TrEMBL record:
This is BioF2-like acetyltransferase domain-containing protein. GO terms for molecular function: aminoacyltransferase activity. Keywords: Acyltransferase, Cell shape, Cell wall biogenesis/degradation, Peptidoglycan synthesis, Transferase. The lineage of its organism: Bacteria, Candidatus Woeseibacteriota. Belongs to the FemABX family. PROSITE patterns: FEMABX. The keyword Cell wall biogenesis/degradation applies. It comes from Candidatus Woesebacteria bacterium RBG_13_46_13. It comes from the Bacteria. InterPro entries: Acyl_CoA_acyltransferase, FEMABX, PG_Glycine_Bridge_Synth. SUPFAM superfamilies: Acyl-CoA N-acyltransferases (Nat). GO terms for biological process: cell wall organization; peptidoglycan biosynthetic process; regulation of cell shape.
Amino acid sequence: MKDIRQSTQYADYLSKTGWIAERASGINSFIRKFPIVGSVIKIQRPEKIEMDKINKLAKKYRALQIIVEPKNTTDIGLLIKNGYKLSKSPYLPTKTLQIDLTKPKEKIFQNLLKDARHALRKTSRSGVETSSDIEDFRNLWKKSVGRRRCIPPLKPLLALKKSFDDKCTFYLCTDPSKQIRAGAIFLVADGMGYYWQAFTNKEGRRALAQYNIVWEGILWAKRLGAKIFDFEGIYDERFPNKSWLGFTHFKKSFGGIVVEYPGAFIKTRLPL
């Protein structure tokens, strides 16, 4: 299945946030123009890599840098042959976890690890509801994480909802007294569901609310016809980031299979 960054919805979303989206042969390329110096082009997880089209884009937009994040290892040789080098800092997560949503709900639940099943039983009285007020959702997010984390501005969040429409949901998890414990954004595109972004406050972490909201997101994606649920990144020893270890343990408690990607390949050139 195609990666979400190759969907028409994602192209529309990035177009609303300052990028130029070009689509040719079913492949999305995204261009960010900068005064005087030229532009940066990024092509993420395409189904195929067509160097002639990439070179035409580079010339058209006077690209200073081209970033290609291949979907599989078979494209590595082609990229290296054309002057691309592996970046030490990937732009997209290079390892992720995916759940098969074609199985019955009961089977998916049985495949969860013991701690996840326990947490879901413990949080059965928590409620998960859709937030229709994106600004309010963001304010709750900001209040929950304080200055510890950067959160997206309101404009991109509104653009995300507008571009994905009913294939995008902003969930909030509350305790029995309706106090907010956690929030999460889930997307569906081209038959895949995605755990996009999330937050949990101190009370939510103590109450294990994050398990409940992710489980509801999985079921939401399944109802919309998604065949696979993608957790959008776990810890990768090839590109170590120790801050990812905690949520990787959490995500792995939902079972699934590990999927690896090669990383980001970059070519720097003098704009013509």
